[in-house]
């Protein structure tokens, strides 16, 4: 299946402590800012159903709001179960425009 860049958000739409919950190409995607970099991960927790972008962020980690699985935002690694590693998506920034590849 081919992958395509999707316009996701503007730089001014998010902040360190304000990730975005997005739906791109029918997929829920969480878009996070850490320092001046942007990271996109699958947003639906692989354990059951909760949106990770609405969870509890602690530095580079995000905790699922439902059963407290913890994931590394930059790599998608599952740090604390229940869960598995998340799919991550490439992100690019052109001026103000943030795009996500999926
Ligand atoms: S739904 Fe995320 S840990 Fe259960």
Shape: globular
CATH superfamily: Rieske [2Fe-2S] iron-sulphur domain
How many structurally independent domains? Answer: 1
Name the beta content range. over 45%
Decide which structural class fits the backbone.
Answer: mainly beta
Q: Which cofactor or ligand species appear? A: FE2/S2 (inorganic) cluster
Q: Element order, helices and strands?
A: EEEEEEEEEEE
The name CATH uses for the topology is Rieske Iron-sulfur Protein
What percent of residues adopt helix (DSSP H or I)?
A: under 10%
| Unreliable runs | none
**Main sheet properties:** 4 strands, antiparallel
CATH architecture: 3-layer Sandwich
Instruction: Please report the first level of CATH classification, the CATH class.
Output: Mainly Beta
Count, helices: 0
Average pLDDT number: 95
Give the strand line-up of the largest sheet. 2-3-4-9
Based on DSSP secondary structure assignment, what is the total number of beta strands? 11
How far the N terminus sits from the C terminus, by CA atoms, comes to 10 Å
Radius of gyration: 13 Å
């Amino acid at each position: 299946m081919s992958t395509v860049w999707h316009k996701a958000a503007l730089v001014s739409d998010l902040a360190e402590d304000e990730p975005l919950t997005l739906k791109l190409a029918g997929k829920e995607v969480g878009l996070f800012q850490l320092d001046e970099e942007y990271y996109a991960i699958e947003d639906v927790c692989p354990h059951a159903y909760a949106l990770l972008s609405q969870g509890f962020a602690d530095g580079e980690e995000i905790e699922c709001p439902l059963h407290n699985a913890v994931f590394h935002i930059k790599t998608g690694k599952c740090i604390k179960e229940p869960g598995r590693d998340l799919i991550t998506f490439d992100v690019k920034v052109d001026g103000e425009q943030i795009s996500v590849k999926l």
